[in-house]
UniProtKB/TrEMBL annotation:
GO molecular function: glycosyltransferase activity
Record has Transport as a keyword: no
InterPro entries: HPAT/SRGT1-like
Keyword annotations of the record: Signal
Origin species: Alexandrium monilatum
Signal sequence residues: 1-41
Statement: the UniProt record of this protein carries the keyword Phosphoprotein: no
Protein's name according to its UniProt entry: Nucleotide-diphospho-sugar transferase domain-containing protein
Matching PANTHER family: PEPTIDYL SERINE ALPHA-GALACTOSYLTRANSFERASE (PTHR31485:SF7)
Organism classification: Eukaryota, Sar, Alveolata, Dinophyceae, Gonyaulacales
Amino acid sequence: MAQAILAQVARTLTDHLTCERAMRCSVELALLSLLLALAWAGPPTVCSSDSSRSDGMSLLQRRSHQTSPAPALAEAVDAMHFIYTVGCNHYQLVQAVVLDHTWREAGNAGRLTRIVVNCEDEKSRAMLDTSPLRGDRRYAVFFSEGDLMEVPGKNDSYPARGRPYAIMQWMKAASPREPVVAILDPDFVFVQPISSHPDLHKVRPGQMLAQKYDLGKDFVPGFAEAGEETPVLSWDEAVDHYATGPPWVLHRQDLEAMLPDWGRYTDSWPRSKGLLREQDAFAMAALKHKVPSIGQSIFMVSNPIAWHEAWSEKGSAPESWKPYVLHYCQSY
């Protein structure tokens, strides 16, 4: 299955990547080959629990699990819309093609939209329009307008800033009718359909589903940075309900309400805050608008020493590690 997916990636990119670009993609494709092999292959027959603690590759192999063959393409449904944002470059195009392919192969129901940020010329737009889902009525590509990565007045180009502002543009232009929106990262490989999550029915105005991240109360000082009073929030409340990241699965009504503050809080953080200021800003917006999460530890695997992932429970058997996505974000 992994080889078939890589073959699809190669076929999809052939018409849009020159030889030089293809060579630059070799590292990304090698990484994705490993990830996809882990996602779609069964667990190895020989690997002791002791060796998995000391051998990083064995650890990853043991923490993969067997998935059933991908079902036939699911019919469109009106309940859920998946979205993700990417920059206008071949690196994120490779990620996007893999996400698109595995989203369908895992059997997700609903719709999927790729939102492309800072892609102005026609040649680049043609490249970022590349997808194995082209022609699928459940799939769309949206190109945002303007430079959304530049933080106004700060001489600061911050790529992650594009996410809330591009989603604002998409919401206004597309007027999605699905009541539930799932916000993904582009560096996801699906192994199970999130649309079949047993707690999906609990998503409603004022309550979301999201993956727990080890952020603690790291986002709370952002209120002072934005010139607002710092809310009272216990450690347990922060960890259980607000210290989250993608996948974020929330009601469209809540997303619409949170978006302006998500963007504003992203801009209010100092540059020294680093890469996660946009993610912390989402947590701040969720807290401000009283949209706690039913925090999930099973949505993903990413960091083998994380506290709140599908493989984090001490002493758990590899057979119990059944994430919905592999999140390969550890190389940034």
